[in-house]
TrEMBL record:
Keywords: Membrane, Signal, Transmembrane, Transmembrane helix. The keyword Nucleotidyltransferase does not apply. This is Uncharacterized protein LOC106173269. Residues 243-473 form the LolA-like domain. It comes from Lingula anatina. Coiled coil: none annotated. The keyword Signal applies. The chain crosses the membrane at residues 617-645. It comes from the Eukaryota. Pfam families: DUF7959 (PF25899), LolA_2nd_metazoa (PF25898). Residues 1-19 form the signal peptide.
Amino acid sequence: MRATVLLVLLSLLFEATLARHVDWVPCPHSVSPSPTGKKPVITLAQQFQINIECNILQKNTSFDIIEYVDEINNKAAVFTTSSYHSVSQFYNYEKYEIFTVINGTCTTKDMRANGSYGFIGYTPGKSGGHVMSVKDLLMFGEEYNDTYVGPATVRGIPVDHWTTCVHAPAFNITVTMDYYFNRPEYKTSSGDVVPVRLAINGTSPNTRDPSGKLQPGSHEFRHNYEFIYYKPGAMDPTIFQTPKGVVCPGRINIKSLPNITDQFTLDGETVHQSSKSVDMIKEFYDFSAKMFRFDRKLKHSTRRWNRNMTAKYGAANLKFIHDYNAGLEYVIDKEKGNCTIHPIPLLAWDGEQMPDHHHLRMKHSYEMWEGQMFNNLNTSYEGQRMIRDIPADVWVTSFPSRWNKSHFVTSEVYFTPANWTYTVENNENETIVPVATWMKFGSGNKSYEFFMNIFEFYNGHPDEDSFDISSCYDQPKQKQGMVFRVVGNYLDLVYEKKRPLLKAVKNAIAKTANISSIRVHDIFFDQTNVNYVDVWFTLLEKPTVTGDVLNGTKDNTSLSAAKANLEKAVKNNMVITVTYDDQKIKNLKVRQGSLLTSEDALDPRVSPKYIYTTQGFTAGAMAGLGVGMIVLGLLIGAAGAFFIFRRMGGEIPYRLTE
């Protein structure tokens, strides 16, 4: 039905648009020029909006058109409203594409194909097409053998009347066109001389009827185009873009999606239009560590996810930690400390369900951000839209819903442009950073959509304590504090290099102990000797639940077994490999046999620091301390004498003898 209606509408446009895409020859002059012989000067803008009432008189039909033409930036858009439909057309001349949108559905055509050139034509070029000039668009000017007839009146407006006649031998079409422009003394809203009416009369071979049947013979046609509104000048560039959430299959993607590294943190504001509510969310993502966390404050809501979560946990401020090493989800109440451990849900947004429907794998960052935009032929660059006053680059795609394959999800993602900077952690500046996402599920009355503003985006590894699950192990027997020594100086190994060192140490301990890295907690670096750095940490007991991640470990190594694995490695010259931010790699040696528990050594994380650091002073250090105390005593005595003499009002006896 939609195709039939569109054919009817396009058949009404055919006689007007065909005139712009065929070869014409002038007709013999049938109208005498103005007896004064003086032609008014008509200057047409290269950028304009024009509203037209199109009256197809021989068919007793009218429709309205709004045209936006920008010769300078090579853009055009046409919005047509009739009794049948509202049709929007957007022209990408560089790639010879026309996007036609009806009721939210878009089709893509090559304007060079027969019958696909659209309402506004093009001029071919070496590096793509170009929007037809305004004179060619109106077929107005000396090259079209126009003739100035003289003054006239149209709709009560004093006008100058022009006419031309052209013939297309290839199509056997003869057209007479009469142009009417307001006279200079009549002031329009734009203050310029503007077109008021275009009358087209002629004969044309019959075309196909709405059913597609070719009609024999020819017919006369009479069209009056009333130019109701004309505004010259630059326009909002978003006018020339397809609407939000509209995917045009077959569209050429002119700009590749930005890459997102496999680790990030962000704060998000999720806006739900249907429920008129706003949620805040935090996300921590680290693919190399196989960890994901999101924080949500649950509240009673009609939305299914909130409804299910509040039924299970109540209205609480929760953090959800997904450990893809073991396939486990830790749900922790941030205020009360309550903890629940179970397998990661198969429909977790950050996981991809495997074909066996029993296991998950962790999604890469691009899958998290752009849904299925990567490797999706429907993914395309739309242009720029203003997001929080940022001219953000926008990409759009659609794909089947993971919950219901018969429904489609439409997704858009917004990035800062390359010429903008985004200040992130440590006052570093980044470019091309995501600032928002939008998604729509389903269609019609059953659709649901949300928009998420993104703040504080950091494109790097989250802090190691982001995935802290220690509150899930509140019994002393479920955790063990430990320490070993690494050969090296604190300034060389730790100072301003803590983040990469933490990551390397945590991964090395987890791998050596044969446990998930999430069970290595509260790492702390200390130095009690210039030649060593003490590495303190806590191991957590194994979970009592088995996960469902694909190719993940079951994390069955007990706390005692993990401790034994570490003891064996430290006795055999354990090495920790660190990759620093400048990509330099350093192998750190663990001092042989240096592994101790918190029961064997004073733990600075729970004991006053001075108690721990006075242990193990050398004889030289103690001698130095004694000398220092003598000097300190002399200084205190001198200060006391100074105070006493000043209180007595006497002079301080700098000289003992004259």
